[in-house]
Design a protein that fits this description.
By secondary structure, this protein is an alpha/beta fold. It has a domain of 135 residues: Alpha-Beta Barrel (TIM Barrel). Helix content is 37%, strand content 21%. Helix 4 links the parallel strand 4 and strand 5. Helix 5 runs antiparallel to helix 6 and helix 7 packs parallel to helix 9. The chain starts with a strand and ends in a 17-residue tail after the last strand.
């Protein structure tokens, strides 16, 4: 069993969690077994495998079976999850209902932007347009509440344009709080803006989920050495 903690309830044990991890089931470069071994080495208490998924994906039952089989030989609490893209401005997420029912950690993330019939790379748009679209998609998914985590808020704008407005972050944090959706504190994307994020998270106190967005064992537990 797991629970999210609010930002102001974060303690040392909760810091030693990583609920955003990718494996060789998707675009990761490390296997489930390799990631578990690394998690044990660095002292993580709880991890969640959150592989990229689409509504037409068929791998989930086999992925679930492998992860569940690992629980018998390790001491870490292991959760099963997914990361799915936000499909439209109504907040729908690209994952089947059956997978949603089986997963513990359900991350909805902005990736490529759904514009008309196309998925557009955020880097192809101007900074202001990119930021506005990312905000709108994130808010829509939070309000839809199909998933229990909003993945790497502002991440596409940060990656493409090195900036996501503070008031946009705050709007997302407030909506996470209102809708009981956890804010993915993502060490891959959020490290450069963590000081400002902490201030807003402390004020509004939403649920938070620590994640590394690891695609390799060396990425795991990204916040352990970088949280003050």
């Amino acid at each position: 069993m797991f629970e999210f903690k609010t930002f102001n309830a974060i303690d040392e044990e909760y810091l030693h969690t990583d609920k955003h991890i990718h494996t060789t089931w998707g675009d990761g470069r490390s296997s489930v077994a390799e990631l578990i071994a690394q998690a044990e080495r660095i002292g993580l208490k709880q991890i969640a495998f959150t592989e990229h998924i689409r509504s037409e994906s068929t791998y989930f039952p086999r992925y679930l079976k492998e992860i569940e089989s690992t629980r018998s030989y390790c001491d870490i609490d292991i959760l099963v999850g997914f990361e799915a893209k936000i499909m439209n401005f109504s907040g729908a997420v690209d994952v089947s209902k059956s997978v949603i029912k089986k997963a513990n950690i359900k991350i909805a993330s902005v990736h490529r932007f759904p514009l008309g019939r196309k998925l557009v790379d955020p880097s192809k748009l101007s900074k202001g347009i990119c930021q506005e679209i990312e905000l709108e998609l994130a808010i829509a998914a939070i309000k839809k509440r199909e998933c229990n985590v909003l993945g790497h808020a502002g991440g596409m704008s940060l990656k493409s344009h090195n900036e996501f407005p503070a008031d946009f972050f705050e709007e997302i944090i407030i909506e996470c709080k209102k809708n009981d959706v956890a804010f993915d504190l993502n060490s891959f994307y959020h490290m450069p803006v963590i000081d400002n994020l902490k201030k807003m998270l402390r004020i509004h106190n939403p649920y938070v989920s620590f994640g590394s967005d690891a695609h390799h064992v060396n990425d795991l537990g990204g916040w352990i050495q970088n949280w003050a």
